[in-house]
Design goal:
40% helix; binds phenylalanine; 335 residues; 20% strand
Length: 335
């Protein structure tokens, strides 16, 4: 028997035992005894010395191996603290999920709506939330002291500075800065002095749309809104236009969609009508064009504004608008 074969045997044993040691199944002393002890595996090989053909070579190899093994086993004892800790590490314990943030449901809806209109060729515009009376009312054809102003419970800041009550102010900024054609949507926060309840909040968000060009008709308004509503609520959704009034559009219409809950059959959410109102719209009033210097003989346009909270509540069946603002993670995490 060659000495190198015996050494390899012991090496294999040692590698297997080191794993057992790491798992705490063998004590350090026992390990040392098993390999280096007086009756250990290495001693067995030394005892066979007389049988080896080249005794000098065998002695050299064995002594080298003994040193190597002694060093390894001693260093294991220095690391035995680590070894003990390894024993305590329970790899079967479940990991902790990191808390990942995500978009607020309102922002998610807003972005989805933006995507739908971007795919139709609209661009995104922005405007100030702190606004003057001119942009929020006057340029939008609200005459001074007109009762239409009272439909908006305005927060005034100082003089004729106020918090915008709708995103329609952005129409005016855009048209002042740009010649037709205009095709924009403008999302943003709005403010009205309403008492908070399940469907009202003093701070809420709208998305405004404005399309101005030659020969824009009510048909385009209907087609655009129909495509939008189908993209947001589903292909089976229908729209219904009801005559309404806004100072800045003529004619004006409120738009209903078939109830997203009962699909038009009639339920509690739609108060058994089968329809739910989602936005205000109309053809841009020539007086608005006049206030921004557009030629109202040449250009026509449509506009609409929809409430992001309302649309989100309908889509997800959320019963109370205040849930969006209370920052209860248990609510926010559901979506
Ligand atoms: N600004 C209107 C509102 O807040 C909505 C609207 C926008 C209506 C554009 C018509 C055209 O009620």
């Amino acid at each position: 028997m060659e000495v190198s074969l015996l050494i390899n045997e012991i090496k294999k044993h040692f590698e297997a035992d080191i794993l057992l040691f790491a798992e705490g199944k063998i004590k350090h002393d026992d390990l040392k005894n098993k390999f280096l002890g007086r009756k250990g595996l290495l001693a067995d090989v030394f005892a066979k010395m007389p049988t080896f053909t080249n005794k000098a070579e065998a002695g050299k190899l064995l002594n080298l191996f003994k040193n190597e093994l002694t060093e390894k086993i001693d260093s294991l004892s220095q690391n035995s603290v680590v070894a003990k800790n390894t024993k305590k590490l329970d790899l079967t314990l479940q990991g902790r999920k990191p808390n990942l943030g995500s978009l607020h449901l309102l922002n998610e809806t807003q972005r989805e709506i933006e995507e739908i209109f971007i795919s139709m060729g609209f661009e995104i515009a922005n405007g100030p939330q702190v606004e003057t009376d001119f942009y929020n009312f006057e340029a939008l054809n609200f005459p001074d002291d007109h009762p239409a102003r009272e439909m908006h419970d305005t927060f005034f800041v100082e003089g004729d500075v106020l918090l915008r009550t709708h995103t329609s102010n952005i129409q005016i900024h855009v048209m002042q800065n740009q010649k037709p054609p205009v095709r924009i949507i403008a999302p943003g926060k709005c403010y009205r002095n309403d008492t908070p309840d399940a469907t009202h909040s003093p701070v809420f968000a709208q998305i405004e749309a404005l399309y101005v060009d030659e020969n824009v008709t009510f048909t385009e308004l209907k087609g655009t809104l129909d495509a939008f509503v189908k993209a947001l609520f589903g292909k089976e959704t229908k729209t219904r236009f009801r005559p309404s009034f806004f100072p800045f559009t003529e004619p004006s219409a409120e738009v209903d969609v078939t109830c997203v809950v009962c699909k038009g059959k009639g339920c509690r959410v739609c108060k058994n009508s089968g329809w739910i109102e989602i936005l205000g719209s109309g053809m841009v009033d020539p007086n608005v064009f006049k206030s921004v210097g557009y030629n109202s003989e040449k250009y026509t346009g449509f506009a609409f504004g929809l409430g992001i909270e309302r649309v989100t509540m309908l889509r997800y069946g959320i019963p109370d608008l205040r849930l969006f603002l209370e920052n209860d993670v248990r609510f926010l995490k559901q979506f």
